[in-house]
Amino acid sequence: MPQPKVKLVVTGDDFGYCERRNQGIVDCFKAGGISNVSLLVNAVSAEHAADLAKRNHIPIGLHANLSEGLPVSRDLKGSTLLNKDGFFHGKMGFREVLQCGHLKMSEVEAELRAQVNRFCELIGHEPYHMDGHQHVHVVPEVREVFAQVLSDFGITYTRVPIEPGLKFCTFLPPHLRDFNAQVEKDALESMEVFHRYGIRWPDVYLGLSTMGKNMSVPNLKRALGFTLDTSLDDAVSSSLIQCNDAVTDSYRPVTAELMVHPGYPSQPHQGGCGEGPDDFSQSADRLHELNTLSDPFVLNYYRQQGIHLCAFKDF
């Protein structure tokens, strides 16, 4: 059997958000559309998700959440992480509070540790990888705390959301292009921090340009084309090389992660992380992603191009 050109982790994010999202993610895994999941331990259906992962032998990591819903830690009453109603500040609110210098990193650390411990309670082992919901793990200050927590728990892999070719994706709306540009800037500055703590990440990251209605067979092929064109010499974020003192000339496939959000759309008032489901989870885009990822044409394309789906634990 020929060596694969690419080892691709297709990660279904937001596992645990609601039972419908959970079931859709499991169905996508069974169909071969994803190979890995990332669990929101503060979500209302996290226990349901954990049971499904164990029953279906789904490789699983932690989707650390500092921006949506209720905290896991019970020691955060009056915390700078929370608004007056006791919820996290939200995707943009979290960043605004951080930028104003009002977030205490000791509270960030306490919540991250509580989420790792909760993951272990639910799953029975430590996460194979850990990333951040809405990319909170790469923002200034937080990334240092995040890296320290991963190092302390022996979690080897994370996500560095820098997508090749993203600047050419003019079909994305301006507000999303601006947000993605900031995410990539933060991620680029995080690489030195993660490397210093011995944390690794795949050579290539994909997913910012293929979310929701922007996920299509042609767009997936466009994004994956950057991965197929990547060599070990010019990999976007080849932490596997960085973390080795000696690099041999022996063949190694390019490693990549594709971030996705499949599922059956949430029903109103069902799901979320304590505040109910958001528009993102209730959108028909969730089912659209599930159907596209499971499309036989996509799965056949992987085989034809030498793309082997795997999980972080396989690295």
UniProtKB/TrEMBL annotation:
Look up the record and give one Gene Ontology term from the biological process aspect: carbohydrate metabolic process
- Show the GO MF annotations: deacetylase activity; hydrolase activity; metal ion binding
Q: Which cofactor does it need?
A: Mg(2+)
Annotated keywords: Carbohydrate metabolism, Hydrolase, Magnesium, Metal-binding
Which superkingdom, per the lineage?
Eukaryota
Q: Which InterPro entries match?
A: Glyco_hydro/deAcase_b/a-brl, YdjC-like
Whether Coiled coil counts among this entry's keywords is: no
Q: Which CDD domains match?
A: YdjC_like_2
Q: Cross-referenced SUPFAM superfamilies, in alphabetical order?
A: Glycoside hydrolase/deacetylase (SSF88713)
Tell me where the transmembrane regions lie: none
Keyword tRNA-binding belongs to the record: no
Q: Which PANTHER family match?
A: CARBOHYDRATE DEACETYLASE, YDJC DEACETYLASE FAMILY MEMBER
The role this protein plays is:
Probably catalyzes the deacetylation of acetylated carbohydrates an important step in the degradation of oligosaccharides.
Q: Which family does it belong to?
A: Belongs to the YdjC deacetylase family.
Q: What is this protein called?
A: Carbohydrate deacetylase
Q: Which organism is it from?
A: Carassius auratus (Goldfish)
